[in-house]
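Re: adenosine-5'-triphosphate structure - here you go.
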Amino acid sequence: MSKELIFAIQLTKPNLAKPFSGSAKKLKGVNTLQWRENTAEMGPVAAETIPDIIMIDDSPENGDLFTRIKSIKGHFPQTTLFVVSDNKDHHFIIAAMKAGASEFLVEPISEDALQNAIDEVRAKLANVGRIAHGRVYSFVSAKGGVGSTVLAVNTAAALAMGQKTAVALIDMSFQSGDASVLLDIVPQNSITDISTNINRLDVSFLHGVMTSHSTGINFLPAPLNPEDSEEIIGEHISSILNLAKKLYDHVILDCASMHVNNCSIEAFKKSDKVFVVTDMSVPSIRNTVRLCKLIRKLGISLEKIEIVINRFIKGGALSLAEVEKNFDKPVYWLIPNDFADIVSSINRGIPLVKLSHGAPFSKNVVEFIKKFQGLLDDQNFRGVKGTFGKNI
Ligand SMILES: Nc1ncnc2c1ncn2[C@@H]1O[C@H](COP(=O)(O)OP(=O)(O)OP(=O)(O)O)[C@@H](O)[C@H]1O
Ligand SMILES: [Mg+2]
């Protein structure tokens, strides 16, 4: 099942068509097709593809708008039709909707309004199983300060920057969320706005609360006041994730370190993978073993739980084999120690994968996202090569 929406754009007014071709490139999770005049009116024979959305303008040269809408809906009954017009008269808008348009966008096209309209369609198609749900990845650590936030933020950024995919990052470190610091975002809204208005949760409300970051990430900040975190319960997380999975290709959750609560349990249940981040120190490994056991007791299968070792140094006090003996499955991924680069990225509020593509950590994260998407040429690779370039 496809993850991308097929969006056919048939704009003929010169004041719309040209500026919009730039905006169309920025749309996430959408495969755009540029249709020439009348392709939509001629139907599937001319179109070759049945799109999920067709967008037309009301250019007078193309004939009566309402007749065109009816004819397009006749040819593409399953497709959602967007109409762009400079006519704000409400009788005109109602007539367009009655003829079969689902969305009426007033010129000039607002990127936010269009993204909302597209996401409404995406959510509807996901509801009826016509479009694939996104995947959810949790990052959690058994001991504070081992790097799960750094990894979650950079993973989200690498996913958002690398492809035309829609990526959400949710800060679930409710008491001390610092993902916003790593993104240099001063949050105005937070997950608390949703939990206190949970009955209003829909596509545009979620978008309104989230913040767009220059990497392309849509970010949902942790509560602005730690005491507000008590308002958030497992069911809120469940509702947010159910909706987010319909709108985003990847949903990254930066979970609180050290303790598991109803919210993180819900997050783990909804996750395709739970990455447990640790370093090679004895206390961290011991806590990781305990946390993995606890997560399994909660009913999360071993298959979903993956151990990631951060700040890995070859030839450290403990060998990887010694560390691995403690776990129920092999370590999934190793991340090199890259302290200077990471500190400079944190201080500048720019994820390292954006600040410095060549940094050892950045190169590693780009391979990491390929691994969990099944895109590595050598799926046995674990992030760091051993002697003579062999897999460790
Ligand atoms: N690969 C790495 N190499 C070197 N230093 C790192 C690496 N990853 C993280 N760090 C350092 O670890 C520090 C803590 O990272 P981070 O805030 O991501 O940890 P955390 O597990 O999320 O902790 P918290 O308990 O606060 O949630 C960072 O400030 C950074 O200095
Ligand atoms: Mg953290």
